[in-house]
Design brief:
The complex is a heterodimer of chains A (246) and B (124).
Chain A (H helix, E strand, L loop, with lengths): L5 H40 L5 H29 L9 E3 L1 H18 L3 E4 L8 E3 L1 H18 L5 E9 L4 E8 L6 H12 L14 H12 L3 E7 L2 E9 L8
Parallel strand pairs in A: 2-4
Antiparallel strand pairs in A: 1-3, 4-5, 5-7, 6-7
Chain B lengths: L5 E5 L3 H13 L3 E5 L2 H10 L4 E4 L8 H9 L2 H4 L3 E5 L7 H4 L4 E6 L5 H12 L1
Parallel strand pairs in B: 1-2, 1-3, 3-4, 4-5
Helix pairs in contact in B: 2-3
Classes of the chains: A alpha+beta (246), B alpha/beta (124).
Chain lengths: 246, 124
């Protein structure tokens, strides 16, 4: 017997059908960290692992779990965007990005990579929800960590456009270039994103999809710039007008 | 067990590649790791591995680009390939045997020692 009936049942089924691409993408995205955690745990159960290896593997398990949890937290937040109230406030992007660099430092270090912020003394303030913006930049940085080459630094950049009306926060990686086919497909999907966007072949695109939802909720947008040696994923947001009120 | 046997691991998850290498080296084989198809081809160019363990979805391209490239040359085309992937349920060995694929391992349910068992089986 169908457990959901009537109008509520139809609404639930509709929600399920609409959410299916995201659910499939989430399942795909979570497979990799869970696979790694399982393999490392099984290995730790055996007796022939040195103490230094044990420590390294335990660290990898905790960092991998944190990454997976970040994704699930973003998914939950994304699902609640429509009925949630959130505060938009003037934010110093430099300070926010410094906090992110500090937070992601151990994960990058454990992967023999580096994340750095291109500094500005007096960046323009932007208007955003702190939590959503933080999640977008964390997601872009996580993506960059995976795709950037060994011994390369991921760079977080802050730029102003349109006579200072738009502030762009970008995360530059130095990974493989996007192919022309993927580039065209990505550009098209970014403009009408209502489902996961594949940025690179092995990615379900879920992180980018969630980031675009977060950006839309703040009247912003996300985009990507293709470089010969990587890509920059960015979010554009309105600059704060509080200075003009002085 | 043979320390002369080289296993090339192509896996874009650096820590999972490290784990595969740990298991394979523990069984007495020499392991070499590449995290993408281009690096794998450079390694193959220098020294032909005896067997390869490949992930399917790689950074930059899928493994099929690499397999296609390898099939273009007689020496690389004969290297036995084991696919170790999260997509095992969506792949068919019969469809991929012409690419040199001898076995497909499901990463989501495999035990660490399954990798060594598969390598031994293919090298017999």
């Amino acid at each position: 017997m169908d457990v959901v009936q009537g109008k509520q049942g139809e609404a639930f089924k509709g929600l399920l059908v609409n959410s299916l691409p995201s659910l499939v993408a989430a399942a795909h995205e979570l497979k990799s960290p869970l696979t790694l955690v399982r393999q490392l745990s099984l290995m730790l159960e055996s007796d022939n692992v040195s103490l230094s290896d044990q420590k390294r593997m335990l660290r990898q398990i905790s960092l991998t779990s944190e990454r997976a949890l970040r994704l699930t937290n973003d998914l939950t937040r994304s699902a609640r965007l429509t009925d949630a109230m959130f505060t938009m406030e003037p934010i110093n992007p430099q300070q926010l990005c410094e906090d992110i660099v500090y937070e992601l430092g151990p994960l990058f270090l454990a992967n023999d990579r580096n994340v750095r912020l291109k500094s500005y003394k007096h960046p323009l303030l932007l208007v955003a929800n702190r939590d959503l913006l933080r999640r977008i930049i964390m997601s872009f940085s996580d993506n960059a960590l995976h795709y950037t080459g060994d011994d390369c630094a991921v760079e977080i950049q802050i730029k102003a456009f349109n006579s200072g009306k738009i502030i762009r926060l970008g995360v530059r990686d130095y990974g493989p270039a996007l192919s022309s086919d993927m580039w065209k497909s990505l550009k098209g999907k970014l403009s009408k994103s209502n489902m996961p966007i594949n940025a690179r072949p092995q990615s379900s695109g879920l992180g980018l999809y969630i980031a675009s939802q977060f950006a839309n909720a703040m009247n912003g947008s996300i985009g990507v710039i293709r470089h010969r040696d990587g890509a920059t994923f960015y979010v554009d947001l309105q600059a704060s007008k509080q200075l003009s009120l002085l | 067990m043979s320390s002369d046997t080289t296993v090339l691991i192509v896996e874009d998850d650096k820590w999972l590649a490290e784990q595969h290498a740990r298991v394979i080296s523990g069984a007495g084989y020499k392991s070499v790791v590449a995290t993408n198809a281009i690096d794998a081809m450079h390694i193959i160019d220098k020294n032909l591995p005896d067997i390869m363990v490949l992930d399917v979805l790689l950074t930059g391209s899928t493994v099929f680009t690499l397999l296609h490239e390898m099939q273009s040359y007689a020496d690389t085309g004969s290297i036995p390939v084991i696919l170790c992937t999260n997509l095992a349920s969506e792949l068919s060995l019969s469809d991929l045997s012409s690419y040199g694929v001898k076995q497909i391992i499901d990463k989501t349910i495999m035990l660490p020692e399954d990798l060594v068992t598969a390598i031994r089986r293919q090298l017999l």
